[in-house]
Amino acid sequence: MATLNQCSFIGRLGQDPRITFTPAGITVMKFSLAVDEHIGKEKNTLWLNIVAWGKLAENLFQYLDKGTQVYLQGRLIIRKFTDKAGIEHQGLEIIASSIQVLDQRKASIPPKTIQAEEAKDFQINPEKVKF
Q1: Residue 64 contacts by C-beta under 8 Å, 6 or more apart in sequence?
Q2: Using CA of residue 52, residue 54, residue 59, residue 62, what is the dihedral sign?
Q3: Cα Rg for the chain, rounded, in angstroms?
Q4: How do residues 20-53 score in pLDDT, each as one tens digit?
Q5: Helix (H, G, I), strand (E, B), or coil: what is residue 85?
Q6: Checking CA distances to 64, which of 44, 48, 58, 111 falls within 20 to 30 Å?
Q7: SS3 content of the chain, % helix, strand, coil (to 5)
Q8: What is the DSSP letter of 59?
Q9: CA–CA dist 131, 110 (Å, integer)
Q10: What is the DSSP pairing of strand 69-82 with strand 18-21?
């Protein structure tokens, strides 16, 4: 049976991206993405948690900051975690596979699309990485 887990969004970064590294030295970039939806005169904002790994994170970090508009493709995962009180929670994340910067507030930066596939030697299962 065929399955598909792919999503695409255009939105603006809600904060400057944060870079961290796994114990194995793999780069992880996280940021929130605001996606506006207009229904009549009403505007709703969907906030998404985005995670980019490896070369995708390394290559794009310098181009992104709060308010940057991007076109993002990725896959949806549900991450389970336990808080300090021992209560289990679930959260949705988008694991980015491609990010394209749409607005160029820095005129010297050319439009850039980076795909996760550019890092062919990079293989990781994000669901198994602990932070």
Answers
A1: 13, 16, 17, 31, 70, 101
A2: positive
A3: 16
A4: 999 999 999 999 999 999 888 899 999 999 999 9
A5: coil
A6: 44
A7: 10, 50, 35
A8: H
A9: 33
A10: unpaired
